Amino acid sequence: MAASLPPQKYTRGHTVGLVLAPFSGGQPRGGVEHGPNQLLENGLAKQLRALGWTVEGDGPDAMPDFESLRPAKELVHGILKNPLFVSRVTQKIHELVKKTCAEGKVALTLGGDHSIGMGTVSGSAAVHDNLGVIWVDAHADINTADTTESGNLHGCPMSFVMGIGPKVEAFSWLKPCLRPSRIVYIGLRDVDQGEKRILRENGIKAFSMHEVDKYGIGRVMELAIAHLGADCPIHLSFDVDALDPSVAPATGTPVRGGLSFREGHYICESIFETGRLVSMDIMEVNPQLGADHASLVQTIQVGCSLVRSALGETLL
Ligand SMILES: NC(=[NH2+])NCCC[C@H](N)C(=O)O
Ligand SMILES: [Mn+2]
Ligand SMILES: [Mn+2]
């Protein structure tokens, strides 16, 4: 028997619309495009149905083929890698997330690398006024075309949705849609110099691992939710590298000193408790990385359990 879920303020009924994002063009390591398939094969949709959700978008032909969007000729903008390809894919994701949210469903995007956040945040913000974004990550992913040292667009989605930094021609579809005050970071511990300046200059609220250690995750979540305000819709973007590599090893840019298993889940549980989660990303699960098969299985399982916690699974 399905559990009965409490009402959610900003969505109609209890339907999750899956948005599958098998994409790795925002960074150089292959494998992360298999994240969505692995999460589904581990039973994610079934697990959400068992919690009482209606789940759409996991049918046999649901997996999109983004290769067809790869341009014959890339645009050049400094050291940015694949700007036109990333733009086309994220625009597609934007449309899918926007449609799902407009239908009153929770949009759950399975990545894929974190450049996809350009599409998910902008797609959700196009429907939900005053959206607050909780970005859980070891990294701030707020480089601009000027500050990025890697040229990897998975390190840039936040500056792109905010509309800061130089205009990049390939992304003319992406209009500024997120003010700095609508962002809260949790879990940061590997932030580039240019990104630190952007965070400071824009007064962006960030709870790095230092604050998680200092206050504990319970207090951090109280402060995070209070910062966004008591009554706004919330988008949760969860990069699994926010977790300590001992918890989620199969990811492209692991950084030691991360969130524990319980801290990660507590974040998700406390966002569910607000009743205001309207969209969520689970990103950077890379089944081809990690030392062995066990670390892969562990990472996929933790990805699934984070989503369950954000969608109402409780310990008791
Ligand atoms: N989504 C991620 N894992 N991002 C890692 C970004 C690392 C680095 N800051 C960069 O710009 O390349
Ligand atoms: Mn990230
Ligand atoms: Mn990261």
Automatic annotation (TrEMBL):
Q: What is catalysed by this protein?
A: L-arginine + H2O = urea + L-ornithine
Instruction: Identify the NCBIfam families for this entry.
Output: rocF_arginase
**What keywords were assigned to this record?**
Arginine metabolism, Hydrolase, Manganese, Metal-binding
**Which InterPro entries has this protein been placed in?**
Arginase, Ureohydrolase, Ureohydrolase_dom_sf, Ureohydrolase_Mn_BS
Q: EC number(s) of the enzyme?
A: 3.5.3.1
UniProt-recorded name of the protein: Arginase
User: PANTHER family, from UniProt?
Assistant: ARGINASE
Q: Which PROSITE patterns match?
A: ARGINASE_1, ARGINASE_2
List the SUPFAM superfamilies hit by this protein, alphabetically: Arginase/deacetylase
Pathway info: Nitrogen metabolism; urea cycle; L-ornithine and urea from L-arginine: step 1/1
Q: Which cofactor does it need?
A: Mn(2+)
Q: Which organism encodes this protein?
A: Polyrhizophydium stewartii
Question: A single GO molecular function, which one?
Answer: arginase activity
Family, as annotated? Belongs to the arginase family.
Any Pfam family matching the protein: Arginase
Q: Cofactor: bound how, per the entry note?
A: Binds 2 manganese ions per subunit.
